[in-house]
Amino acid sequence: MIVTRLETNADTIKEQDLVQRLKKRQKWAFNHLVSKYQQRLFKLAYGITLDREDSLEVVQDVFISVYKNIQTFRQDSSLDTWLRKITIHQCLNWKRKWKRRFKWNHKSLEQEYDFQLPEENTNDPEILFWEKQLENNLMKAIRTLPDKTRLVFVLNAIEGLSYEEIAEVLSIKKGTVSSRLHLARKSLMDSLELNEEKRISYGKRM
Amino acid sequence: MINFIKIRFILTAILFIYLLLPPIVSAGDRVLTDVKVIHASTTGAEQFDPGLKGIIHELKSVFKYTSYRLLKDQRFDLNFSQEGLVNLPGNRTLLLLPSDTDGKRIRYQINIQKNNLSIFQTQVMLKNNSSITIGGPELDSGVLLINISSALQ
Amino acid sequence: MEKECDLCTSEDISRFIDGELSSEQCRSFEHHFSLCPDCSHRIDRYISLSFAFSCHADQKTMENHEAAVMGHKLEQAVLNSEKKSAGTISGLFGKNIYLKLASILAVLMIGLFPFDEDLLQGPSGPSAIVNSLDTEYASVMIIETQIEKHTIIWFLEET
């Protein structure tokens, strides 16, 4: 227990030190911040935008924003939480900025459903079938979720945040987190199983 | 004698080739540049200024704006390496510099400044008798669109 | 669609997975889930959704060259920011006009009709070819309209 507490304190001190150095505009501190967080923030941004190119731009914007606004960071939340909030804001802002003005729907340059589950040693046909269903339809279904719902799902699935942590990041109530996360899971599951029913019915007709 | 004929022949051949070459830009070549400053917004009724007739279809195919007002239409007859300046709303300035041409496209340096600081600059090869549109600094619940067209003189 | 169980709702299951139920509720549900195939099935599905999505996102890591490009752009942005705050104006068109590149999202084809590659192959080309861009701001798009191939450059001015 004591060791854990000490480690936690060490992490907090390290973070405080990093923030202080960032505020002093020390270049190596900024480089350290970028190398520490870029992959994580990219993964989070991707979960929200579902677009690789957009996610790269968002992460870049996040670090530029941090550089410019670090003086306003009061450390009443952790650096992790602050960076998450900025990333989410940039993701939603990014979409809004373009959607408001342009008529088309941005088509991602990458293949949309380039989806592979990690290999599992299973020969169970039901499990294999389910994984295949996920592979084909999950990302399609996720795109149809409303932004607010998908956001909660992403923070839970990708960042592993608790309801309380999600509520803090999004400034919403815990009950709202619960209902949105449930809605996301139910919608995705219903959507995937509807596809399964269609497939079965098509198979019967053939 | 034979050498003299040879030299005359070579000189004539060089002159002939030179005349056949595509025209090279000389200091006297000019380009007529037209700048339309447009305010696009979604407030108000669907409308566009008659002066935008030539480009409104392209703009509407891209943007969701419903109203397109022509704020300014400024024409320049510029020499190459001569700069044109357009004052834009919101303490902004557009600077244009045609530098050369290959006969089909004209090279332009385009710079947009705000409060005398450069916020955007680009170098483009603009097709003769064609235009480019640059947007969109925000203005009064809408945006500025700047359409730049050119015609070689 | 899977029918919901009489004893617990799908939201209960969702909260159970996330450890958001009280220990008493957990104990009672655990016993129920061991007997109810519908609920047990739903638990597996909910967990696999998050797992599958997380694995998919895991594969979308930034490549080394992308990180390097971003690092360079950030350096430039930091330099520009410092220049700005120092109040220097480096000439009419900027010192490194061709070196700084704003991020260009994509060249997107706009049209009311589905994207048709054949239409792009016209002999005339776009109305303007962009040789270089230089801006403080990361958000720039270059668009070419489908029929007239009219070039539009869109940048988001920082507010």
Write the layout of secondary structure elements.
The complex is a heterotrimer of chains A (206), B (153) and C (159).
Chain A: H1 2-23, H2 27-49, H3 52-69, H4 79-101, H5 125-144, H6 147-157, H7 163-170, H8 174-205
Helix pairs in contact in A: 1-2, 2-3, 2-4, 3-4, 5-8, 6-8, 7-8
Chain B: H1 2-20, E1 30-41, E2 47-48, H2 56-62, E3 67-79, E4 84-88, E5 92-101, E6 105-114, E7 117-127, E8 130-135, E9 138-139, E10 142-152
Parallel strand pairs in B: 2-3
Antiparallel strand pairs in B: 1-3, 1-10, 4-5, 5-6, 6-7, 8-10, 9-10
Chain C: H1 10-17, H2 23-33, H3 37-59, H4 64-86, E1 104-110, H5 117-120, E2 128-135, E3 140-145, E4 151-155
Parallel strand pairs in C: 1-3
Antiparallel strand pairs in C: 3-4
Helix pairs in contact in C: 1-3
Please outline what is shown here:
With about 210 residues, chain A is mainly alpha-helical. Chain A contains eight helices and no strands.
Sheet bearing the most strands of chain C, described? 3 strands, mixed
Low-confidence stretches of chain A: 1-7, 105-121
Count of beta strands of chain C:
4
Count, helices of chain C: 5
Our Rg estimate of chain A from Cα atoms comes to: 20 Å
**Which two chains form the greatest contact, residue counts included?**
A-C, 62 and 48 residues
Query: What's the average pLDDT of chain C?
Result: 74
Summarize the amount of helix of chain A as a percent range.
over 70%
| Spatial separation of the terminal alpha carbons of chain C | 48 Å
Mean pLDDT of chain A: 78
